[in-house]
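Example record for the data management plan.
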Amino acid sequence: MTSLLLASFLLASLLPASLALSTVAVANEVEIWTEPLTSTWLDDHLAVKRATRPRAPVRLNRTQVWASGIARTDMQAFLPTDVDRAVGAKMQPFQDYNFLIGTELVRGGRDTALLSSKASWEAFMTRGWERLGVTVGLTTAGFLDPGQSAYSQSLSGIMDIPLDLSLQAWSTELRLSPSMNLDGVSGDISTGLVSELVGRTRLTKPADRFRSDLKVRLGYGVAPNTRPVASATLELRIAPNL
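Corresponding structural encoding:
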């Protein structure tokens, strides 16, 4: 009898609470359909996960880093002077433009306490005419050395003209390379022209594991107030045939 009375008492006490919860739920449901959906109401009643914009991955394909003279080699014992140690970097800030800027730190081989730096820049463009087979390139580069108050700017071009020579497995072309250099310290302007006969051939077959290319260059350079200079270059490149 006592347990029956206790159960009746608990049921009577919980019934108003359940009715109150159901009343609140109905009120909230009615509020959804009757109240205006403002941004403040949505912030108070809804939790929306805002999509974050994914970050672009960092790519270093437009960055160049180099170093020279850092590690001592056995060949330095035969050099007449000490080798300078240099570390530099160059980057292309704009993907659609062939413009590079960089800096270089140089420490002299004899005076290890002297550390100099210089800034450099480079811009280039290339254009080809398929009908004529002619390719033209233009490059300008310069550097500024505040420590030595040196400034230099150069402008060079290149023109490749194909030659129809009766040489089997060889492709030949005539290359003309004019250049002009400005020395900011002395104000001198130097010019020059190099003409080269370039020949290329492939020594391997397409099915071979390695690709071997041979290039031969015969050149002749002229410049004002200097003697003409003749040059000959033989270049062999071997790379995996991927």
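Summary line stored alongside the record: The beta strands are 63-68, 85-91, 99-107, 115-129, 134-145, 150-163, 171-183, 189-202, 210-222, 229-240.
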